[in-house]
Amino acid sequence: MSLTRKLLRLGNSVEALEAAKRAIHLSDSVLRLCLTISHLNRAMYFACDNVLWAGKTGLISKLDQHKWSQRSFRYYLFALILNLTRDAYELHLLMEREARSRTSKQPSSPSIPLPPDHLSSSSSPATQAMNFGWLYRQLHLVGTVLYSNPPLLLDLVKNSCDIFIPLDRLGIYPTGPGFVGACGLASSVLSILTMVHPWLKLKP
Predict the structure, then answer these.
(1) Is 13:46 a contact under the CB 8 Å cutoff?
(2) Strand, coil or helix: 122
């Protein structure tokens, strides 16, 4: 089953290269950089995966499978890091847009100055209350943005699940086969969900 799955992925390197060619024409420089390099790393990951498939089927003899496996997971990890960077960037842009929208809708209220002794102490109750209020507003803003943008939420969760796989295989952050399997299952379910409902796929 594993070899059959890898056989079906032989064309993924070409698909990733085509995606990189499309991403290089994006107007946003951050998205262009993240997506182009991410797709190129995915192409290299699939290419290494194809070499591993050829070694397991006997097409390439005396192949160092551990070496090629580690190499493929390094490409996979770098691609996922770039995908998460893209997700964080998209989230940041949407949070700024939502914050501006809220500010424009709220009537301006005069600010109440704090006493000098409150301003001089970062551990004062007033300062702690302000920090807690700011943190609560930011978390509420993140929740609102993700709730109103399901494609970004699904992509963020999927990439977060996927990244534990290469981290475990490369020995950077071992989590155990049970946790890795659960992350892989969750990622597969989300991938199927985006195929059943294409509007849930994050674009570009």
Answers:
(1) yes
(2) coil
Measured CA to CA, the distance from residue 145 to residue 152 in angstroms comes to 9
The pLDDT > 70 percentage for the chain reads 86
Residue 100: its H or E element: helix 65-105
Half-sphere exposure in the Cβ direction for 22 (13 Å, CA): 9
Classify residue 98 by burial, with Cβ atoms within 10 Å: 0-12, 13-18, 19+: middle
pLDDT on residue 114? 52
DSSP assignment of 12-65 equals: HHHHHHHHHHHHTT-SSHHHHHHHHHHHHHHHHHHHHHHHHHHHHHTSSTT--H
- Sign of the four-CA dihedral 95, 99, 100, 105: positive
Least confident range of 53-57, 68-72, 125-129, 131-135: 125-129
The identity of residue 2, as a single letter, is S
Per-residue burial over 105-119, b = 16 or more CB atoms within 10 Å of its CB, e = otherwise: eeeeeeeeeeeeeee
